[in-house]
Amino acid sequence: MIVLKFGGTSVGTPESLANVKNIVESLGEDAVVVVSALGGLTDRLIATARMAAGGDSSYAAEWEAMAARHENVVRAVIPGADRQEATMEAIRPLLRELRRLYDGISLIADLPGKTLAQIVSLGERMSSIIVTDMIPGAVHVDSLQVVKTEKWHNRDIAAVELTDRLIREKIPQAGGYPVIMGGFISTDRNTGEITNLGRGGSDYTAALVAAALDADVLQIWTDVDGFLTADPRVVKDARVVGRMSFVESMDLCTFGAKVIYPPTIYPVFHKNIPIRILNTHRPEASGTFISDTREKRPYGRVAGISALKDEALVTLRGAMAGDATEISSRCFNALARQGLSVHLVARSSARDSFVFAIGRGDVAAAVRLLKEEFAPELVDNQLEVIEVIENLATLAVVGDDIRRIPGASEEIRRLLAESGIRVAAYSDKASETSLTFVIDEAGVGDAINLLHDAIYTLSVFGPQLTSD
Ligand code: ADP
Ligand code: ASP
Ligand code: MG
Q1: Is 222 in the pocket of ligand 1 (CB under 6 A)?
Q2: Quick check: 432 pLDDT over 90?
Q3: Which ligand 1 atom is at minimum distance from the Cα of 227?
C-alpha cells in the first residue's frame, strides 16, 4: 500500500491533472492519494478574504474567477457532459458556501480566525472531489471526518492518536481502488470546527495516513525533480540528491527547505516508512529517496544547504549569562511553556552573553516571557539587557556526519567573511547533523550561492556525490 501526495503545483492545471491521473492509474496497488487545493488557490482564498473584510468589493469578482477556474478544470479533466454535471453538483454548494462566507465577512468587516479556516478549507474540499471524479473507480474520503486537531497554546496541532485511529477506521483499505482525500484540512476534536494543519500541511496529512496504515512508501509529488542541494529559485544549478536520511531532510526542512512541510517527516520516520520526492511533470525522473540511510552513505557528504528567513537574535547580557546551564534551561522552559521554539543557540565569544535565534513573529512574546522569568535578576542587575536584532536569516549546512568533517564550521565562516558576509552568530551544536550561521537577511542569496559553489563545485569538503 502506498500513499501519494500531490501538491498545488501538481493539481494546478488540466495538463498536470492529466499527469496525476496517469500516475495513479498506473500504480497497480492499493493507494491513498492526498491532494492540495488547485495551485495558488489557498493564497488567493486568503487574499480575497482580506479584501472582503477590508471593505474592498472586488472580492465578488475574485470569487467569480475562482468559481470559473474550478468549472473550467472540471470541464477539462472529466469526460462527458453527464459526469461533468455530476461533479459540478458537488462543487456548486461549496462555491456557494464560499460566497456566503465572503459576503458575511464583508458585512461584518472582520475576519475571525475560524472563518478564515473555513474559507481556506474549501480549496482542498473542492480539489479532492475533482480528482476523485477524474479517476474512474476512485473513492472520496472526507478529511474533515478523519483528521483531528487540538488546541496547543492557541495553535491547532494534529491530535495524532485520535487521527491515527480514525484513519484506520474510516479509510477503506485493500479495496483495489484508489482513495482520494484533501490534505491540510481538519476539524477540532472538541468543537468540530474546521481547522487546518498549517500552510503546506498536505504533506503532513499524507504522512499521518502513511504512518497509520503502515504504508510501504510515502510519495510526495511536486514540481521539481527531487530534494535539491539548495532552493532552485536561489541556486540555479542546485542538484538532485538521490538519497537522503530522515534526519537530514528534517533538518533541511526545519531550516527553510520548502519542499516538505517539517512536521511531515516525524510520523513516517517513526515507522521507518521511506519518503520519495517525485516530479509530477516528469514522472520518469528518479527523484529523492529519503530513508534511514545512515550506513550506506559516502562519508562527508553535505546533503544540502537551506535558509530560514525572518529570524531574530536575542541576547541576554549580564553576569548571570555566564552560567550557561541555568540560563539556558530557564530560558527554554519559559519559552516552551508558551509553545515557542528556539532555532539555534549561538556560540558566544563574550562570557557574559547568552544568544539564541528565534522566528521574528515570536520575538515580542519571547521578550515578554523572558522579562517575566528573569524579573528578579533584572531588578538586581544580574541580568542587564535583553537585546533583539532583526532582519536576519539562519543558514544551515546539513549532512549526517558534517560535524565530523574537520574544520567545516571554521571553513564556512572563513568563506563567508572573505566575501564580506558578516556572521552575527553561529552554532556547531544546533543539531548532530547541521552547522548553522546567522547572517543578514539581505545577504542570504549570495551566501547560499557562495557555499553551494564551494561545496559542490570546488569540493572544499571533498567530492560530493549527489546521485548515490
Ligand atoms: P507543492 O505545491 O508540491 O507542495 P511546494 O511549493 O510546497 O510544492 O514545494 C516545492 C517547491 O519547494 C519547489 O518548487 C522549490 O521551488 C521549493 N524548494 C525549496 N527548497 C528546495 C529544495 N532544497 N529542494 C527542492 N525544492 C525546494
Ligand atoms: N493548500 C495548502 C497551502 O497552500 C496546503 C498545501 O498545499 O499543502 O498551504
Ligand atoms: Mg508544499
Answers
A1: yes
A2: no
A3: 24
Distance 10 CA to ligand 1 centre (A): 12
Contact 69, 38 (CB under 8 A): yes
Q: Given the DSSP bridges, would you call strands 194-196 and 185-188 parallel, antiparallel or unpaired?
A: antiparallel
Residue 200: CB within 6 Å of ligand 1?
A: yes
Does ligand 1 come within 6 angstroms of the Cβ of 225?
no
pLDDT at position 297, please? 65
- Contact 43 CB / ligand 1 (< 6 Å): no
Global model pTM greater than 0.85: yes
The one-letter amino acid at 412: I
Residue 14 CA, distance from chain mean position:
25
203 CA closest ligand 2 atom index: 8
- Highest-confidence range of 217-221, 239-243, 350-354, by mean pLDDT? 217-221
**Is 230 near ligand 1, meaning CB less than 6 Å away?**
yes
Atom of ligand 1 nearest to the CA of 226: 25
pLDDT band at 371 (very low <50, low <70, confident <90, very high): very high
* Residue 256 confidence (pLDDT) above 80: yes
How far is the centre of ligand 3, averaged over its atoms, from the C-alpha of 201 (Å)?
7
Q: What residues does ligand 2 touch, defined as CB less than 6 Å away? A: 7-8, 36-37, 42, 123, 183-184, 199-202
The set of residues, in sequence order, having a beta carbon less than 8 Å from that of 458 and lying 6+ positions away, is: none
Looking at residue 296, its pLDDT comes to 62
Asked if 213 contacts 232 with a C-beta cutoff of 8 angstroms, the reply is: no
CA 272 – ligand 1 centroid, Å = 23
CA 124-195-207 angle, 5° bins: 65
Judge whether residue 220 has pLDDT over 90.
yes
Pocket test for ligand 2, best of 147, 197, 199 (most atoms within 8 A of CB): 199
Tens of pLDDT along 275-307?
A: 999 999 999 999 999 999 765 666 778 999 999
